[in-house]
Amino acid sequence: MNYSEGLLLGGEPKKRHMGRTFGVLALSCQTVILIGFGVLGEAKFTAESSAHSVQVYNYYVGVALMMLVGFGYLMTFLRWYGLGAVGFTMLITCISVEVAILAEPLFANGWEHKINVDVMSLLHGNFCAAACLISFGGVIGKLNPSQLLVLAFVEPIFYSMNNQLVLTTWLGIADVGGTISIHMFGAYFGLAVSAVHGKPVDTSKEKSSTVSDIFSFIGTTFLWLFWPSFVAGAIPAGTPEAETAITNTVLALIASTVMTFAVSPLLCDGVFRPVDLQNATLAGGVAIGAIANLDIKPIGALLVGSFAGALSTVGFCRVQEALLTKLQLHDSCGIHNLHGLPSILGGLASAIVPTIISDDNAGHPGKQLAGVAVTLVVAVTSGALSGFALKTLNDDARMADDSFYWEVADDFDKGL
């Protein structure tokens, strides 16, 4: 019996109930956001020049493409969860950007000032959305729409607290590309939610196909192309520092790509695994973020990218299965391998580099290490608390099956 037949035999009221629950939650969340913008939001535009304004917008477009197309299509690797992957990516991005625009300035400045909503605030909102989408990767196919909505509303608050109060105000760490503040936080928040949620009972649809793997590679390509905009977006456009960050990021991505192609067949019986190439090729971009704007020389960027690509590939080929077997930690998209492990590598690199080079933009080694440690604690703790709260919205849907929540086409589940 398929799901549609089950609805006709008595399952329809429950699906309608879940639909109403989501609708009420969505309206409630958006109402709170509207009130927040109405009370606190304003728009004052102070672009230094037309060229600067254009460059900031170009950065924004690149980062937005990473969120909606890059993350969305990267997560289409699940054969029967394409609508959920792309559709819920759009939902999570939009909700989290709205909440982040309100939350980050409040944690940074309190209630003393109005919140200025401009292109730069939209860009920073997308940085927060990246953390939320990373977390989504750890639970993709396992949480229902209501749970994902709450996750997208709550996580930006914890992210903003950690980013503004802990990393910026208290420690003042150097992390221009979000290695610690975005990738590490998003990965371990999502893993904590997944750990609390538990391993799915029915994983029969946790499979890929040729079509889903190709679509996932589209996401990889978009993320790869626009990653330099993500890393350099917060740096004043057109400066030597911005050009340094862009160059180092591209070099790190190139190195991690080559290393992934090298290591994948060595660990996987002489063949290339799509999951490795879809993900670990991007690990250089994760690891380089905290030091991308520093004069680490081309060899430094290439070394960081190489180590990140190799570490991420080992994670996909060896570590992920071990975590599932020994700890029952189910990581749908392998966020521990792409974002978790490389972010720890990048965090350690950000503590080592200041002892080697002299650069005003470099962080203090002790503070960098403290930033890594505190972010891990905040991410895991807040993720676990959120996970327990989300369990109150559990349902009995099968993992990674669009037909539970979407109107699907007639050819769904037929010869795909």
Automatic annotation (TrEMBL):
GO BP terms, alphabetized: ammonium homeostasis
Localization (cell): Membrane
InterPro entries per UniProt: Ammonium/urea_transptr (IPR029020), NH4_transpt_AmtB-like_dom (IPR024041), RhesusRHD (IPR002229)
Primary location: membrane
Membrane topology: Multi-pass membrane protein
Keywords: Membrane, Transmembrane, Transmembrane helix
One GO cellular component term: plasma membrane
GO MF terms, alphabetically ordered: ammonium channel activity
Residue stretches making up the Ammonium transporter AmtB-like domain: 31-392
Domain of life (superkingdom): Eukaryota
Transmembrane segments: 21-39, 59-78, 85-103, 123-141, 148-173, 179-198, 210-230, 250-268, 338-357, 369-390
Entries under SUPFAM superfamilies matching the protein: Ammonium transporter
Stated family: Belongs to the ammonium transporter (TC 2.A.49) family. Rh subfamily.
PANTHER family (alphabetical): AMMONIUM TRANSPORTER, RH50, ISOFORM D
Protein name, entry field: Ammonium transporter AmtB-like domain-containing protein
